[in-house]
Amino acid sequence: MPMISGKRVIAAMLTALMAVTFTANTAVSVYATGVTATENAQTIDAQSTDAQALTPEEQKAQELQQVYDMPVESNGYKDWPQGPGTYGEAGIVMEVGTGAILYAKNIDAHEYPASITKVLTALVALENGQLTDNVTFSHDSVAFLQRGDSSVGLKEGNVITLDQAMHAMLLASANEAAYAIGESVGVNAGHDYNWFIEQMNSRCKELGGENSNFANTNGLHDPNHYTCARDMALIGRELFKHPEFFQIVQTLNYTIPASETTEEHVFHQKHKMLQPSNSNYYPYTIGGKTGYTSDALSTLITMADNGQTQLVCVVLRTHGKNIYPDTTNLFEYAFNNFTKVDVTTQEKSEDIETFLTEDGQSEPNYVMLPNGVDFTALDQKITQDTEDRSTGIVTYSYDGHELGTAKVKLSKSYLKVHTDSTQDESKSSGHDNSKKQTKSGKHLSLGTTKGKIILGLSILLVILIITFIATVSRIRKKSNKRKSNKRKKQ
After folding, report:
1. Beta bridge pairs of residue 315
2. Half-sphere exposure of 444 (CA within 13 A, CB side)
3. Cα 455 from Cα 434, distance rounded (Å)
4. Which of 83, 74, 70 is nearest to 400 (CA)?
5. Which of 30, 358, 416, 451 has a CA-to-CA distance to 339 between 20 and 30 Å?
6. pLDDT one-digit tens code per residue, 247-261
7. Which of 184, 141, 148 is nearest to 163 (CA)?
8. CB 253 within 8 A of CB 269
9. What gap in Å lies between CA 421 and CA 85, rounded to an integer?
10. What's the whole-model pTM score?
């Protein structure tokens, strides 16, 4: 029988002890909790059964609560007013004049826009056409329609004005009108429908949109047709430059009269926050557009003005019938928790000589200040104009969130300290070796007295170094010669 070493005996004893301890602990655990593995599995099955036992109404309520409880990013900002939850998966409130984002929930996530796409169609049409232009309904502009698609019944061969077509598109959400607008504006500009789609995408990018791709003019579902809350708010903000857009979207009832090519068409405003007789009416609403598909769920873009502040609100992928209450709550939050503050009365910086007014600007420079935050707490960044270095743009932000900008004339003290030498560099760039750049970014001319002194000292230093090296070399040669002579004598 083979001999077993003492170390192996000890190891075996320790292993056995651990096994006994584990078994004992398990037994105690089971005893203490009264739950066995089998019972635990039964509990999990029971929970699963309970979830399956929920009625459709309870499941829907559970889903709604989960969406409502999704994080609101702006509620995590430092000292920021706490905004409401929404039953939409994405939402934003943007102030028009500054572009400041007052409320943010999932604002860059890709979502399907549905028919709020049509506000971008309207923007591109207004920028590239005239309301008196003709819109002709081709075969392509009506052939795609399917049962259930929103339409006012316009037919192939109809010819109406762009103004009439815009009313049909924005009030009644007529998909055939949206297509015909894109096609006709494109043709009138010497192009086609696809060119119009290209303009939609490029215009969105020019406005700062980075998370959108538009594949059609009406918003009917396409996997490659998507946007985000931020991009749609930027589009809505730009529409404030077009009062004709608001004249159209504030219309409650509209008639396209019969003509030689067209039957009479009567339709109504669909945005309930613009309907005074509707329970969802909101008195500060001045425009907007509704949207819905089974893939996008409810979408809504709305513009509001309380006489002091203009806002754009976008809510996407809203569950249930909450699209209007959510928008109203967001407007109330923004109007009640942010104040428009004139920076010209608050700014004390010695870097600024005076504030300038942009062309077409109707009110003074301002920021949107969250309630409870003092103007002195804002961070300030000055960006000099590349052409006129005496002017610049001041960007005001709080905890990294931009609240507004202002154009200013910079003070002499700022210009003396901060103006770099880019203009001088452009005059002497790489072709004039008579100037050397210092670490401070300023230039030192070798033609000045100071430059000559430094040049002379530099030459003297080089001469001293060369002399030192030569002296050391001669000493080494003499030393080597003496050693050689000693060896010969030996």
Report:
1. 91, 300
2. 14
3. 12
4. 74
5. 358
6. 999 999 999 999 999
7. 184
8. yes
9. 51
10. 0.76
